[in-house]
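Sorry to interrupt, but I need a hand with the structure work. Could you add the entry underneath, on a fresh line?
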Amino acid sequence: MLIETRAYARAGLLGNPSDGFFGKTIAISVRNFGASVTLYPSPELHIEAQLQDSNIFRSIFHLRDAVGTLGYHGGVPLIKAAIKKFAEYCEQQQIRLPNQNFSIRYKTSIPRQVGLSGSSAIIVATFRALMQFYSVDIPQPVLPNLVLATETDELGIAAGLQDRVIQCYEGCVYMDFDRTTMERQGYGQYEPLDPRLLPKLYIAYNTELGKQSGRVHNDVRTRWQKGEEKVVQTMSAIADVALQGREALLQHDTDALHGLINRNFDLRREIYTISERNLSLIETARTCGASASFTGSGGSIIGVYRDDAMLNRLFVELKKINARVIKPYVV
């Protein structure tokens, strides 16, 4: 029995990053990039390391570049953490797992550390493979919580639910993380939206912008938890952008979406420190006439473009700052 599962990159469209602050967001899955997991029975439980998990390097400069692009740990810790969390969930739910082992390996084409959620995609794909192997059904709204807990509890990664929700649901989803709802049922209200409502979207990313997203959120989270008025009000306004964006999508109001995407980033900039490299992505895209906001915590942007001429200009101008432009494939 050979099991193959997959999870895709994602892009936050509106409301990002209010998901971690009881806000609202709209996100899309980006099928241009994905992580796949292959699992099959074996005498012992074996996690197969991939090239990016190697601790052998050609030189000190090779190590520097590998860590800058892939981080320190590769994908094996993500799979280990996912397996542990899956086993704990089954134990809590009194689900007896059969005594059968497996080998598991992963592949990923998602650019790392540029805000397209490559790490959580590996975890989602791992959960899907384990669910199939052990014939365990985890309710769809609950699965993103387990994926998030894998990262926060097991690996110490600061993150929100948005990425995990869209990677579990796929397509285009409006998410409301209202505090009362979250406390009552343990997860938010997730509303799939018809991807055909989406306007002409582009994504641009710069693979030189290596960073770990958890570091980006820590200071703002502390200020929000302390009740700093500026942070609380701004995060509420960012959440409201997603609410307005949902209505704009349903009304086919592309001009409104264009403005809301820009407003999302402009509000974010009021409370977050934006690096010059990240800012250059935004400014270059806007100079071309497109809207622009972060897909995640930095490293890649998303926005609305008007026509092929504008898209071609985005290709040309963003290439000058080492950024690649794609049209997201959303099903």
